[in-house]
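Below is one such protein, fold included:
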Amino acid sequence: MNSKDALRLMVASYPGGREVLAVRLGITDELLRKELSGVPTHKMGADRAEQISDFCIEVKAENCYAYVNALNARCGRLLELPVVDMAGKQDIRSGMASMLKECSDAVVALTNALADDTISDNELREVRREVLELFSVTQHVLNGAESNNAASKRAHIRAA
């Protein structure tokens, strides 16, 4: 996932969607739509992208770390995510499905790179990006499993 896709995903999952986020940013919904669309006449600046990321993290919207992870993946780094409340079984199952998708993307990137038995610099960047996205999703699922485990222990202690 690139940074533009990450921003689109975050805006879509923001409570109230693009319209509410545009109001918070102090711009029109139409301007935000055009900036997110990637048309050459309306480019989103780094400051606005950072604001969107901050607003999404502030309300703990789904996929709120997508932009930060996309930037880190481009640099070949993995962001250590804070533990989020993902204790629900459905959240963990949804995360597992995302893990499988990202694993598939990583395998496809590596398979394509190995088609000629030599991995070029560009292919290595693509493989690294896909693997780091897999790590990010896996870390999120692991945090959810740990959160679920801690919640079950607290419930057991209260029941005793």
Summary: DSSP finds seven helices and no strands in the chain. Helices lie at 3-13, 17-25, 29-37, 46-58, 66-74, 89-113, 121-159. The mean pLDDT is 84. Residues 118 and 124 are 10 Å apart (CA to CA).
